[in-house]
DNA sequence: GAGCACTGC
């Protein structure tokens, strides 16, 4: 028999094993899952939220003798809460047989056989163990969300399957799956597909008859209509796109509801409490978005015991991240803010764009978790049909510098070759390689060098990693650790229009004339000097975001530990620039990581980026905004470039020309 | 003088 024939026969054998098991009730699912697992290398499980796939299937695998199982989740909270639930179901202590690992929190031990992890954690493990050899079974959950990390995990897992034929099995789980895509992605393996029945209650979906111009107005009307016409109890969840929309909708609902109530009371109702409550129930409005304080978020989630009806106005944080009890009605505006691909490199732009059908289903599903519900879509059925079925995979619109470094650290010399569900444009990878080369992570043959390996070791952006490594050489790593930590977190300055004056006054003492980097460092170092139990109060007094600072502190501790593990030899350190101030040395380190993001100050404070021919402005939130004198010359570096009404640079600092010359990766030379 | 959807190591 020829080789070709043998290959063909093997292929046929695989095809025959492939099976499709449709809509299994839960009691059948158990048997079928174990059969599928026994006969295939890859199992795709499709099932809505609540079908028990995440909690039940890994336990079944445990019961039939798999001894090292991992289940990945895109989000921390999910990994933690699922692990806790499974432990409760089995009556075992968290961290013994079953545990979880998320950043800053490892609840596993040597006896742990089933671990729930975020996919970022698994990718980090893959750097030291690219074939994931410590696991015999890997579950990848929420694959339909197509997050950057999940897509990369799927690529790495497929590679491990190929390298470890026979000793590894994979289960991909999702709510609604592009089955064909996943089937062809895993076509070289024995594959089973399992569909499990969800436990969602039926949801009636209503469309608007004619398109609306202003969906915020439409959402307000819909919300009030539901309140007055639909049965009580049952809370309302309204999906809008951002803080501004949510706040104005909240104002409008409150206003109109109050007006209507006083109109009713004046004209129809005697002032009797009883009659009052039988004719209409009170309505309370709660905003919900990520930037809110945890206290305010909790208020929106607190059950109201049917004393009034809640209307929660949320961003897509309520789509996946936060589950709100008591929701019976969903209003969906059909839009969300999404990152859009930009022709310009390293430029973020958010735009309000139509959601996908999958997202619309997800939003509607929020109405049927506890009882039959209703979903009111503020768009026509025609418009729904025109929506794309699946969301744009994140990998197609993301910056790949970090991911490329990680893949190379796993030993892939050519990350282009990793098989992925959707391949990013070649330019994205090429750009990533170009960046890595220029900041010194690659040698001239484009292979990862010692510095690059070190950079991948830290959970930081490659540019920050580069700055951190430079700071070891220049003997200022302790302050750089703090700077890296605070630069890795979201904004610490809490903006609110009412308290602007007093907030600016409170921030004044932190401000550094060099720019935002040292201002932030000043804030963080002051925060660290405050006793722990006084920190929350201190943040309140200074209008600072406690959550961000606490996260920065966690990162700071993690980075310090990692740095200690590394034990850099003294040959790594130099005595260069010893006579300079620490600030100057820190500046040099930042330039070593971020010189690609440098800007020349031209006449009249016109700013031009040096790597892309682009004129930019300093964002009004920067301490250097309007602080450059009209005759000032020189250079700046920035941490972020964002496109809103025009290109803005955010988190900006002044740098010296000689720093660019000496730490700019040989990209600069003096004009003759 | 403008405005930051959401995750993650």
UniProtKB/TrEMBL annotation:
Q: Out of the domains of life, which is the source?
A: Eukaryota
User: Keywords assigned by UniProt?
Assistant: ATP-binding, Helicase, Hydrolase, Nucleotide-binding
Q: What class of enzyme is it?
A: hydrolase
Entries under InterPro entries matching the protein: DEAD-box_helicase_OB_fold, HA2_WH, Helicase-assoc_dom, Helicase_ATP-bd, Helicase_C-like, P-loop_NTPase
For this record, the Gene Ontology CC terms, alphabetical, are: nucleolus
Span of domain Helicase ATP-binding:
34-195
Reaction catalyzed: ATP + H2O = ADP + phosphate + H(+)
Q: Mention one GO molecular function.
A: double-stranded RNA binding
Q: Which biological process, per GO, is one annotated for this protein?
A: positive regulation of transcription by RNA polymerase I
Cite the Helicase C-terminal domain residue spans from the record.
Answer: 215-411
Query: What residues form the membrane-spanning segments?
Result: none
EC number(s) given by UniProt = 3.6.4.13
One Pfam entry name: OB_NTP_bind
Matching entries from PROSITE patterns are given as: HELICASE_ATP_BIND_1 (PS51192), HELICASE_CTER (PS51194)
The name this protein carries in UniProt is RNA helicase
Tell me the lineage of the source organism. Answer: Eukaryota, Rhodophyta, Bangiophyceae, Galdieriales, Galdieriaceae
